[in-house]
Amino acid sequence: MLVNAKEMLKKALKEKYAVAQININNLEWAKIVLETVEELKSPIILGVTSGASKWMGGWNTVTGMINGLIKDLKITVPVALHVDHGTTIDVCKAAIDAGFTSVMYDGSHDLVEKNVIDTKIVVEYAKLHNVSVEAEVGSVGGTEDGITGGVNYASLEECKLIALTGIDFLAASLGSVHGDYVGEPKLGFDEMVEYSLATKLPLVLHGGSGIPDKMIIKAIKSGQAKINVNTEVQKAFSSGVRTYIEENKDKVGTGYDPRKVIGTYSIVNMKKVIATKITLFGSINKA
Ligand code: 13P
Q1: Ligand 1 atom with least separation from CA of 205
Q2: What is d(CA 144, CA 209) in angstroms, rounded to the nearest whole number?
Q3: Active site residue 90
Q4: 84, 106, 118, 168: which is the annotated catalytic residue?
Q5: Second-level CATH architecture of 6-281
């Protein structure tokens, strides 16, 4: 069932686990995520960047595809369809109009005063449609889908200001990075506890790939209730295609069939990563 992410994250924060946001890129991606969480009886947030949405055809195509999969695969766990890093108000509105149930308005590129004003506009529009809203303060390092940022730690003041807009969960950047980490991640665990208590909001950890398990567990104990994972699933996909081609499987019989190219290793690899993350985050049987 498509739902917003508000209740699932409130419950996660209270019961000290995290719901995964797995970013999707195509039909096969969405399908394997949904099949895996249905088996594990876990709630899930499907993250879609503007770039991924364009790749798949647009916000309406994505909504239609996910609603269709939920129906055809008889998915019973709560699924939120979420815009990842919506960098303009219009992007968030377009996705909401198309049926997305959750949006991230990422105004972290602006001064906090403007970020607050714009986030508020998105919150007002989202509330009319029963859609949940995530905001970002500070900035996540690294690159995702062409959006590059430097690590910039969020301050308590910024968190308090943005919380007043009525958002449902908060990405307070505290050292995490999209893509590969150079060395050990330097996450601000003390600040997580402080900001979580001050705002009473579920926190969102971007850059969930490549963080050691011990740190993930500590982050969840410190108030992170949503953890975003993209890079590790992408790598699982591409390494599967690499193995398939390197083994020349595409040259045998009808091995060129895309369902075989993707289905033989990539889907299996992706499922393993998704199931491992869901298990680590503690959301099994929390649907
Ligand atoms: P990774 O690609 O580092 O897992 O980060 C995902 C993310 O934060 C999506 O917003």
Answers
A1: 8
A2: 12
A3: no
A4: 84
A5: Alpha-Beta Barrel (3.20)
